[in-house]
Amino acid sequence: MQCTKTSFGTSILVILTMVLLMMYYTDHKPTTHLESHTSVPHHRHKTQGNITEDCKIHVESLVRKMMESYGLSEKTRGEGTLNSAKNVSTRGSNTTNIIDKNVRKVVLAYTMYFGQKPWGWMKNTHEFNHWQGVKCPYYNCELTFERRDRPRSDALIFHARDMPFIDTLRYALERKSPTQKWIYFAMESPMNNPLTSRFNSMFNWIMTYRSDSDIFRPYSYYFESKHIPLVQDVKEYMEGKDRLVFWASSRCGLMRDKFVKKLLEYMKVDVFGACKKAVGASNKDKCPKNSERCEKKLKRYKFELALENSYCVDYVTEKYWDALKRGVVPVVLGGANYSKKDIAIPGSFINAMDFKTVKKLAEYLIYLHKNETAYLEYFKWKNKYRIVDYPPWNCILCARLHLDNKPKVYTWLDTIWNANKQCGIHRKELQKMVRPRPRTFE
Ligand SMILES: *[C@@H]1O[C@H](CO)[C@@H](O)[C@H](O)[C@H]1NC(C)=O
Ligand SMILES: *[C@@H]1O[C@H](CO)[C@@H](O)[C@H](O)[C@H]1NC(C)=O
Ligand SMILES: *[C@@H]1O[C@H](CO)[C@@H](O)[C@H](O)[C@H]1NC(C)=O
Ligand SMILES: *[C@@H]1O[C@H](CO)[C@@H](O)[C@H](O)[C@H]1NC(C)=O
Ligand SMILES: *[C@@H]1O[C@H](CO)[C@@H](O)[C@H](O)[C@H]1NC(C)=O
């Protein structure tokens, strides 16, 4: 599932790298590797074709598309003619220095990331200029964590959960050059982020899981790929699957508890983590988070409940992706429109909201449990798409810093990032689903 970090070495180097990577993914269990949440140890696949090449093709096509959207033509974008394109101007801007390869834009990670600095998963310039072991195409950036680099930085990234004091922000804002981009970076839904009104008129771009972000940064990422691991027999996906459905959660007291409770009326659901008692699950065994033994156990299930903690636009977290990565079909419940290609892989999930009642959903899961052919259809996407842990947001951001000089500011960030406006989706239907008889709710 992972694009290997090879290239420009001897074959020995390539093999060494692969061995190292394998060790990494089997022995090292990253907890704060990417998000603050869980990260799944990867299962290894027999891969065919050159995956590195595949990632390279993908990220190049993304950046090229972006260049085109800024008015760079086929002629001017070729490697050999990059510098000659210096005098092409961006659409809607009057600057001309568009594509000078030698200009290295500076990106300052201004805040910590969940208390971490440097950010655990993006620590230096080298990492910032690579995606899945592939060098970001065409453009180069420098990543710094030093606040003293603020004046010379082309972009400042502020992680929403680690915001500085408002006075610190205002001080920096007063000294901000008009071309410096301030980026509001959020991974949590507006339900779980501090109020944004005091950040009005401060930020130029937003970088979030929302697909309409200036820099789209979902929790994981997938793309269409030619070099897909070929599976001899789709039944491989069924291997060792002798259990039905589980839910793992560390946070209780949300609407989703009621959903699981309701589902338990119709079928067996194994619950791991803090909410077991709250929903009245009866499984005896435990599954300590991030342990290899637990991960092995979870792979034995056919379905996983991937229930989001809030129901907001496009909000799909690692719960969905982790299920896919461990080869379990996710039963999703959230505010996102999962039919959007940006949001989820077509045919990879079962959406609870597609069912009139929880009972109907339970019946469907039991049907799939009994009908192997029908169940295996949820793995068809694997013939076409590949999942990786991160989107190439760094390459996109770097390219955009070179391309986009359009002035832009989020005057009303509090309407763009607002729990009342973007959350609570499906609330009414969901309430109806989880309690057929009227009863006070929360
Ligand atoms: C895979 O592709 C990369 C990038 O194009 C190349 O550097 C590498 O040598 C290729 N590896 C193999 C095994 O073909
Ligand atoms: C730059 O623009 C001028 C006209 O504005 C054009 O004649 C010239 O060919 C361009 N140079 C390159 C390298 O594209
Ligand atoms: C073009 O840029 C100059 C400064 O470089 C600025 O004064 C001018 O207003 C800009 N023109 C437009 C149309 O944006
Ligand atoms: C969800 O997304 C799909 C695909 O983009 C679209 O056709 C559909 O109208 C959307 N549904 C809603 C409720 O917005
Ligand atoms: C099992 O699923 C397949 C594929 O969806 C379907 O064609 C078949 O009729 C189902 N069999 C039964 C017994 O429901």
TrEMBL record:
<keyword id="KW-0812">Transmembrane</keyword>
<dbReference type="Pfam" id="PF00852">
    <property type="entry name" value="Glyco_transf_10"/>
</dbReference>
<feature type="transmembrane region" description="Helical">
    <location>
        <begin position="7"/>
        <end position="25"/>
    </location>
</feature>
<dbReference type="GO" id="GO:0000139">
    <property type="term" value="C:Golgi membrane"/>
</dbReference>
<keyword id="KW-1133">Transmembrane helix</keyword>
<comment type="similarity">
    <text>Belongs to the glycosyltransferase 10 family.</text>
</comment>
<keyword id="KW-0735">Signal-anchor</keyword>
<dbReference type="Pfam" id="PF17039">
    <property type="entry name" value="Glyco_tran_10_N"/>
</dbReference>
<feature type="domain" description="Fucosyltransferase C-terminal">
    <location>
        <begin position="239"/>
        <end position="413"/>
    </location>
</feature>
<dbReference type="InterPro" id="IPR055270">
    <property type="entry name" value="Glyco_tran_10_C"/>
</dbReference>
<comment type="pathway">
    <text>Protein modification; protein glycosylation.</text>
</comment>
<dbReference type="InterPro" id="IPR001503">
    <property type="entry name" value="Glyco_trans_10"/>
</dbReference>
<dbReference type="GO" id="GO:0032580">
    <property type="term" value="C:Golgi cisterna membrane"/>
</dbReference>
<dbReference type="InterPro" id="IPR038577">
    <property type="entry name" value="GT10-like_C_sf"/>
</dbReference>
<dbReference type="GO" id="GO:0008417">
    <property type="term" value="F:fucosyltransferase activity"/>
</dbReference>
<keyword id="KW-0325">Glycoprotein</keyword>
<feature type="domain" description="Fucosyltransferase N-terminal">
    <location>
        <begin position="105"/>
        <end position="219"/>
    </location>
</feature>
<keyword id="KW-0472">Membrane</keyword>
<keyword id="KW-0333">Golgi apparatus</keyword>
<keyword id="KW-0328">Glycosyltransferase</keyword>
<keyword id="KW-0808">Transferase</keyword>
<dbReference type="InterPro" id="IPR031481">
    <property type="entry name" value="Glyco_tran_10_N"/>
</dbReference>
<protein>
    <recommendedName>
        <fullName>Fucosyltransferase</fullName>
        <ecNumber>2.4.1.-</ecNumber>
    </recommendedName>
</protein>
